[in-house]
Amino acid sequence: xxxxxxxxxxxxxxxxxxxxxxxxxxxxxxxxxxxxxxxxxxxxxxxxxxxxxxxxxxxxxxxxxxxxxxxxxxxxxxxxxxxxxxxxxxxxxxxxxxxxxxxxxxxxxxxxxxxxxxxxxxxxxxxxxxxxxxxxxxxxxxxxxxxxxxxxxxxxxxxxxxxxxxxxxxxxxxxxxxxxxxxxxxxxxxxxxxxxxxxxxxxxxxxxxxxxxxxxxxxxxxxxxxxxxxxxxxxxxxxxxxxxxxxxxxxxxxxxxxxxxxxxxxxxxxxxxxxxxxxxxxxxxxxxxxxxxxxxxxxxxxxxxxxxxxxxxxxxxxxxxxxxxxxxxxxxxxxxxxxxxxxxxxxxxxxxxxxxxxxxxxxxxxxxxxxxx
Length: 373
What we know:
This protein is α+β, with helices and mostly antiparallel strands and 373 residues long. It has 2 domains: 258 residues, no CATH class; 109 residues, no CATH class. The protein contains 11 helices and 16 strands. Strands 1, 2, 3, 4, 5, 6, 7, 8, 9 and 10 form a 10-stranded mixed beta sheet that branches. Strands 11-12-16-13 form a 4-stranded mixed beta sheet.
């Protein structure tokens, strides 16, 4: 199963999942549709990206002028373990010369791009031009880092301070620390994470208070992975490289986008009870929890437009969440932590680990209310 890949990766601390170029392009284009100046005169920092492999680096380098960037900064933690590199920028550079075959082993690197263009005057701008400009340090900079390139290192923090927007795919196992750092330094960001991060006690309050939200193109994605990763649902692409399909990944951001302010089109409770496409709603109606003072709404499109009290909805609701339409009250994790006592049914004598209906434990729920108009 695709979702098992996330669990296996978390247990093994396998964090080398490389985002495909088309996924990055598709997501960023949606922000530009909302505001063409989203990245204009901004310093973008990709702080978990080996420029030899990173499609984040590739996208921003190739679209530097289109986006109107002021600067692009990229730092790597260590050389990528992926073989058959696509992005051989500096094939002759090596810190520790050896007779090993393939690309030389290099240190963590820092790339700073201030301008790009058709450097070799062949009438075409591509990564070869970027590489040549970096090699001669023509208003750009490429150099090894003194430290290991960890986003928490002093070198990377200094670069973070210089940036406006962080865009990357951070290690899932360090997601909490990564988000905390972004907020500590008051940065805008667009990053990829597991949808399960929504339920983290460090993350959910930020979403609840509209300090961060989901991006646009969420759901299952295909990532390139190192050959030695033993994940389920892996396959070889036509390029001979190893890929894995990962379920439940999504973009997290505090950049505005248009879909965030599009209200859901919903039916009334009576209309849902008569016409819902979900047989469960028609047959069972809207059930009340045994332990919570709320009704269960198992499908986002079955949220009744005229119900004024608290509803429990799946975490997938956040993919359609419009803050002008709904208020997020909390989650069952909040109740487990002793919060939201007003939601607890005092007659309930069982556990408060999740919601229960007819003594049957259900999936994680977020509690919401319609905003008063």
